[in-house]
Amino acid sequence: MIKECKRCKVKFEITDEDQVFYKKMDVGVPSLCPDCRNNLRISFRNFYRLYVRKSDMSGKQIISMFPEGSPYTVYSSEEWHGDKWDPMEYGQGIDFDKPFFEQWKELQIKVPRAALLHHQSENSSYCNLAFKSKSCYMIFGAVENEDCYYGHIVWFCKDCVDCLYPFECELCFECIDCVSCYNCNYSQECRNSSDLDFCYDCLGCHNCFGCAGLRHKEYYWGNEKISKEEYLKKVKEYNEGIQLLEKVRKGLVYPEYYGYQNEDVSGNHIYYSKNTHHSFDAKRCEDCKFLFTANSMKDSYDLSFSPDDCELCYNCLTVGNSQRLLCCQWSHDSYGLKYCENCNSCQDCFGCIGLKHKKNCIFNKQYPKEEYEKLSTKLIDGMKSAGEYGEFFPVELSPFKFEETAAYMYNPGGWK
Questions:
Q1: pLDDT at 416 over 70
Q2: CA 61 to CA 78: how far, in whole Å?
Q3: What is the pTM of this model?
Q4: Is the dihedral of CA 373, 376, 382, 388 positive or negative?
Q5: Distance from CA of residue 69 to its chain's centroid?
Q6: Bridge partners of residue 176, in order along the sequence
Q7: How far does CA 55 lie from the centroid of its chain?
Q8: Residue 391, CA distances (Å) to 6, 29, 41, 199, 228 in order
């Protein structure tokens, strides 16, 4: 099936395999192309535009994604995760005469929001989107890191500074898109390597300087083999690594995509994955499609900035360790959520915000299981009739200005 994106008018294909997945998730085919779907999701994510403001709970000065004067009630992350408030107090009934998203917006304005998004993190107060990280500073998109500073999308790293998209790295500085590297500096697109300086696209290499495109080499200088003694001497004396790397890269043949240990994949920056297509920055994923920065996903489509272990999830932003999530944001350790935001350890909830350890809730109001199933089915039927079910939240519901969002960060002149 060929469709035209209702936003950018680009034609995109929906395969038979895609239709099987959409049927499994009980949604219709998407109205937007994959790129517009991702841009819509990440227009709800403010990584790095932070403000000084007061907490609406304590009045203390805090760092927040939301400026003073924002229409939202904002608590510090510690206050938000504390037990001095109850998100169920903001629950509201269902009005089947109103569109779903109009009712969700009413709840969105009422429920307090966390100043910064942290989940099981420690001593990382100046990070945003921090997941299971410890002692990190100014990392935006931090997943299971320790002692890392200044970076974006730093995942499973330790003692890394000023890095962009490193994965499972340690003691690295000024590296970009490096995977499983140790003690590397000013390097890019390197994998399973150690002690590199000013290197590009090196795999399984050690003690190399100003090299590009090497595989399983040691003690190389400008792509030429030298002795260990000469290498150690030159490393101490040489200070023009960038110029040397630029010279070596001039004759480099570039790969079709950057990846390693994959089977049947397409996209870029894909590692240890199988049957994963049109995906970018995907690690350990299987039977997936349209992933944009995701790890350990299975049988899922259209996930952005999602850290770990999801299955049968669709059209979600920053979800982890969950199954059967549909159009959810920043939700973890959950099952069966639909159109929920910042809900953790929850099951079978619809249109909820900020819940913890809850079940069978709609708009933050709890129902008996049988009534929940009846009401949620009626909501779904109404959204399907309106062509909304399976589509992400409308961009008008983003709590951020476009210039504050990841959509602007990745597409500064484009998507709104």
A1: no
A2: 13
A3: 0.94
A4: negative
A5: 28
A6: 164, 188
A7: 26
A8: 12, 9, 10, 42, 58
Question: Could you give the residue ranges of the DSSP H alpha helices within 333-397?
Answer: 369-385
Q: Give the tens place of pLDDT for each residue, 130-177.
A: 999 999 999 999 999 999 999 999 999 999 999 999 999 999 999 999
The CB density around residue 84, as the number of other CB atoms within 10 Å, is 9
Give the whole-angstrom CA distance, residue 346 versus residue 343: 6
Query: Which residue type is seen at 135?
Result: S
Q: Is the pLDDT of residue 105 over 60?
A: yes
Domain-wise residue ranges, the chain: 138-249
- Ranges of H-type helices in 272-354: none
370 phi and psi angles, rounded to 5 deg: -65, -40
- Look at residues 387, 414, 385, 389 and name the one whose alpha carbon lies nearest to residue 402: 414
DSSP state of 393: P
Helix (H) or strand (E) segment spanning residue 2: strand 2-4
Which pair of tokens denotes residue 213?
Answer: 């495109």
pLDDT for 415 beyond 90: no
Q: Are the CB atoms for 388 and 397 separated by under 8 Å?
A: no
Q: What are 268-291's pLDDT values in tens digits?
A: 999 999 999 999 999 999 999 999
Residue 209 CA to its chain's centroid (Å): 32
Buried b (16+ CB within 10 A) or exposed e, 349-362: bbbbbbbbebbbbb
d(CA 73, CA 53): 12
First-to-last C-alpha distance (Å) of the chain: 27
Maximum Cα–Cα distance for the chain, whole Å? 79
pLDDT score recorded for residue 411:
85
Query: 131-167 burial, b if ≥16 CB within 10 A, otherwise e?
Result: bbbbebbbbbbbbbbbbbbbbbbbbbbbbbbbbebbb
How big, in percent rounded to 5, are the helix, strand and coil portions of the chain? Answer: 20, 35, 45
84 neighbors 371 (Cβ within 8 angstroms) = no
Using a 10 angstrom Cβ sphere, with 0-12 exposed, 13-18 middle and 19 or more buried, the burial of residue 305 is: buried
